[in-house]
Design brief:
Elements (H helix, E strand, L loop, with lengths): L2 H57 L1 H14 L10
């Protein structure tokens, strides 16, 4: 190959590398957009679940009392400081 063909081959190789980089960045942007959509959906789901739990507790006060008892049972004991 002569010098002109070598330059053309090198230019084509570099163009292919740049095209691959742009495809990678486009895929990265798609992934970021999907994460943003998922984050919003998860926030909406958490809000809906919390609102449902709040309504259940408001409608059934005995559940609220049970919830407090279970929190005390399953929570770690408070830290006890040794006497000085």
């Amino acid at each position: 190959m002569n010098g002109m063909d070598d330059n053309r081959a090198e230019a084509e190789r570099l163009a292919n590398i740049r095209a691959g980089w742009h495809r990678y960045k486009a895929a990265e942007a798609d992934a970021q957009a999907a994460v943003i959509r998922l984050t919003d959906s998860m926030r909406q789901l958490a809000t809906a679940l919390q609102e449902g739990a709040d309504r259940d507790l408001a409608e059934h006060p005995d559940m609220a009392e049970l919830n407090v008892m279970l929190d005390g049972f399953y929570s770690p004991p408070p830290a006890v400081t040794p006497p000085q």
